[in-house]
Give the backbone structure.
Amino acid sequence: VGDVAQAMAGVASGASIMISGFGNAGIPAALIRVLSDNDLDNLTLIINAIRRVDECSPALFGERRVARVISTSFRGPDAWPSNFERQWMDGTVALEIQPQGTFAERIRAGGAGIAAFYTPTAVGTPLVEGRELRDFDGQTYVLETALTADVALLRAQKADRFGNLFFQGTQANFGTVMATAATLTIVEVEEISDVPLPPKQVHLPGIYVQRVVQVSRS
């Protein structure tokens, strides 16, 4: 597509949105900014570190556009509490905290069509209170359900005209599984090639990608 506004066309209020990124690697900053530009609200955000959203688009929490967060980390080096933390503490934003491996596996399961799975991770902690537990071979496991979303927002280094993606190193992080678990995958890239990517450079096949927009590094 021609620009970021076209890339985000049709994303509506109430959407569940997966956002790639680990630290600053693979954060689709330009796409995140459009979420607030488009006056969307009642959003569910699924992202490894929620503070990256505040860094890219402070208006999303500042204007109370987000209803629910699923994340592995929300604290950062900035002044506490953030807008998100205030809204979580006063009950206006729901928070589901997940161990990072469970977070990744729930998304992978969603993309693979697996409804749920058992894991020993977090058993014996407050994260599993009220959840279904089951013993296998003398060890206790908790039932985790799959995660899917209406939209996935990703950043990659390069795409070709078929939507095949090449990620630079850790830029890939959660992006490859998020694309499989979302109905609509939108990707910002630094380069678009008219020539098909060599097979060894295809880290995510274009079958999982619906829209690509070229965005310079920011």
